[in-house]
């Protein structure tokens, strides 16, 4: 396979071999386990809303799976991120280091607490925040005064760093964590896309003081809508549970609240879905690993590169990603496949170009721009048929 036209038509044929003749979405959920049974339990018990056994169970299951001490369920990933950023000490007027190459939720959550993002470039291989770019930015632009990291250009406090594990590929989180320690900056990992991804055998999310997952319908496992905060810090865990449940002081009938809280609780119905989904997560991960190998093999005979995790890291293969040579090639590939009912997608428009964030400081974002121009997501659902014959 050489020219792009024939690669595209082979890609369509290959997708059809894996997924069949109907429209092929990027990522669809699979409900073939205990979903119906657990939902019925909720309905029959009358506990469908914000309290119930399934919420507690789902929290325990996520804590176990990720190796975290505490897990706090929320209504979606964005709300979990909002609370994580607030609890780690980010305040109105602060600045938060993050990637320009991420989904909008990361920057929205930073904005909800009255802080402003600073955009750091990503690494070409991981697509996640570059520790070298982070260190360079801080050395050029920041100084520590009275234990606080101050941006010398804006005079504002830089209080947190929110890297993201793009499409489930772990970023260089160990190095980022060390830089944050050196600069006294809180680390919150946006793991919305990286449940089941490991950096040197440690689950992503275990490096930050607080980290979050999303269980939106297109993620690796889903609760319909939902999110989770994880932390090893008991005080953060207690505060997170408190302010996500309206900051109500526990009492049998009196309603007393001790601060402005949020109604960010995950309903029991959604948690029931989550319990059934996470029971199957290892099966999903194993099938998706086989699928990623098939895609990698497919593209190995072309000029197109298939993105893989760093040596020693494990990706959950949430969305498979290829890199083309130019923006023109990217656009052709996406249009030609979508025209045939095979869904492919470019990476998000860089946050630094959106009108809400175009005045935020950035470091040039050379790699981010190059990746925006050339990355394409491939169909990545768990297939309904066996992969062994393909
Ligand atoms: C999905 C996602 C979120 C937010 O999740 P929701 O559950 O949709 O609120 C946050 N960050 C990233 C990078 C995501 O992909």
What can you see in these coordinates?
By secondary structure, the protein is α/β, with parallel strands linked by helices. Helix content is 37%, strand content 15%. It is built from twelve helices and 15 strands. It has helices at residues 4-19, 35-45, 53-66, 77-87, 104-112, 131-141, 173-183, 234-244, 268-278, 281-299, 327-339, 366-374; strands at 70-74, 95-99, 116-120, 142-145, 148-151, 158-162, 186-190, 198-199, 202-203, 210-214, 227-231, 305-306, 320-323, 345-346, 375-378. The strands form four sheets. The chain has a seven-stranded mixed β-sheet, sandwiched between helices. The mean pLDDT is 97. The structure holds pyridoxal-5'-phosphate. Pyridoxal-5'-phosphate (PLP) is lined by residues 76-78, 81, 102-103, 105-106, 164, 190, 192-193, 214, 216, 227. Pyridoxal-5'-phosphate is lined by residues 76-78, 81, 102-103, 105-106, 164, 190, 192-193, 214, 216, 227.
Label the structural class. Answer: alpha/beta
Summarize the main sheet: 7 strands, mixed
Rg from Cα: 21 Å
Biggest sheet, spatial arrangement of strands: 1-11-10-7-6-2-3
pLDDT below 50 for ≥5 consecutive residues: which ranges? none
What percent of the residues sit in helical stretches (DSSP H or I)?
A: 25-40%
Straight-line distance between termini: 18 Å
Strand content range:
15-25%
Sum up the overall morphology in one term.
Answer: globular
Counting DSSP H or I runs of 4 or more residues, the number of helices is 12
Following the backbone from N to C, one meets helices and strands in this order, namely HHHEHEHEHEEEHEEEEEHHHEEHEHE
Ligand roster = pyridoxal-5'-phosphate
Number of strands: 15
Mean pLDDT: 97
């Amino acid at each position: 396979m050489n020219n792009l036209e024939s690669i595209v038509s082979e890609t369509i044929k290959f997708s059809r071999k894996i997924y069949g003749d109907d429209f092929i979405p990027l990522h669809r959920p699979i409900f073939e386990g205990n979903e119906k049974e657990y939902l019925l339990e909720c309905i029959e018990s009358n506990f469908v809303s914000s309290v119930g056994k399934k919420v507690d169970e789902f929290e325990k299951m996520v804590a176990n799976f990720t190796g975290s001490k505490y897990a706090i369920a929320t209504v979606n990933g964005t709300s979990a991120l909002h609370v994580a950023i607030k609890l780690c000490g980010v305040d109105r007027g602060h600045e938060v280091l993050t990637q320009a190459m991420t989904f909008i939720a990361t920057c929205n959550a930073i904005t909800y607490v009255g802080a402003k993002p600073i955009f750091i470039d990503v690494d070409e291989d991981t697509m996640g925040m570059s520790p070298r770019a982070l260190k360079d930015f801080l050395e050029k632009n920041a100084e520590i005064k009275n234990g606080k990291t101050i941006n010398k250009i804006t005079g504002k406090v830089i209080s947190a760093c929110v890297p993201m594990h793009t499409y489930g590929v772990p970023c260089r989180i160990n190095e980022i964590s060390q830089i944050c320690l050196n600069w006294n900056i809180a680390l919150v990992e946006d793991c919305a896309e990286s449940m089941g991804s490991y950096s040197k055998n440690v689950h992503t999310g275990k490096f930050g003081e607080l980290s979050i997952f999303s269980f939106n319908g297109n993620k690796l496992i889903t609760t319909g809508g939902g999110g989770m905060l994880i932390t090893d810090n008991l005080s953060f865990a207690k505060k997170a549970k408190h302010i996500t449940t309206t900051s109500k002081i526990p009492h049998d009938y009196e309603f007393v609240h001790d601060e402005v809280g949020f109604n960010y609780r995950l309903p029991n119905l959604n948690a029931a879905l989550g319990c059934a989904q996470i029971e199957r997560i290892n099966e999903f991960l194993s099938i998706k690993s086989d699928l990623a190998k098939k895609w990698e093999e497919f593209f190995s005979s072309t000029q197109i590169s298939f993105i893989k995790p760093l040596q020693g890291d494990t990706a959950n293969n949430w969305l498979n990603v290829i890199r083309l040579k130019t923006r023109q090639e990217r656009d052709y590939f996406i249009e030609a496949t979508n025209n045939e009912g095979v869904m492919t997608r470019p990476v998000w428009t860089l946050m630094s170009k959106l009108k809400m964030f175009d005045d935020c400081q950035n470091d040039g974002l050379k790699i981010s721009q190059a990746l925006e121009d050339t990355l394409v997501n491939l169909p990545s659902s768990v297939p309904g048929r066996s992969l062994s014959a393909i």
